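User: I'm writing a tutorial on reading structure tokens. Could you give me a worked example: one chain, its sequence, then its tokens, then a sentence or two explaining what the tokens reveal?
Assistant: Sure. Here is the example chain.
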Amino acid sequence: MKIKVLLVDDHQLFREGIATLLFSAENIEVIAQAEDGADAIEKVKHYKPDVVLLDIAMPRMNGIEAAKKIKILNPAVKVITLSMHSDKQYVKGVLEAGADGYLLKNCTYRQLTDAVQTVYEGKKYLSQDITEMVINGYLSPSKSEEREYDKLSEREKEIFMLFAHGKSTREIGEKLFISVKTVNTHKQNILAKLKLTSNAELVKYALKNGLISIE
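And here are its predicted structure tokens:
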């Protein structure tokens, strides 16, 4: 019996390339493709794959959020992130979401097929670069390296999320019944605590840490 795989990536050419590669694998069958996380959820329900190969940066719903929802929907489905990102925040977010494997897009055909087989057997699979990151302790930071977001006050987290979802300073002030000046003060404190310099960096931070998804 072949391992049923669902490919999820917003780039059709990349999906088709992976599908063509896996076509030659004796024990793997690509049964469906999806273009984003939301589409992947529906395809998981319909096709019931054994393994989902999932990108991170996608429209509508990113890979971290999709991995969480897939695992809730069907914990037996194995999820492998296939990403160009080796940033520790992406890796941490994906693994905390319940993913069973993490591969970089520059992996070899053998690594890809090995990963699919390994997670199908109930084991974890990390590419060599990601394994070294784990061994070096980047995914288990000390207290001094505690995630900066957790240091925000509840009010700061509330304002952070509103900015992350594209709300303006005026809109936030009206929603929370506070002045624009107060919103700006909170914003400056948030940026300082997170070591950020702009709204764009704030949104990027939220995405990388799985705090919001691309809808």
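What the tokens reveal: Residues 142-146 have pLDDT under 50 and may be disordered. The domain at 143-208 is CATH 1.10.10.10 (Arc Repressor Mutant, subunit A).
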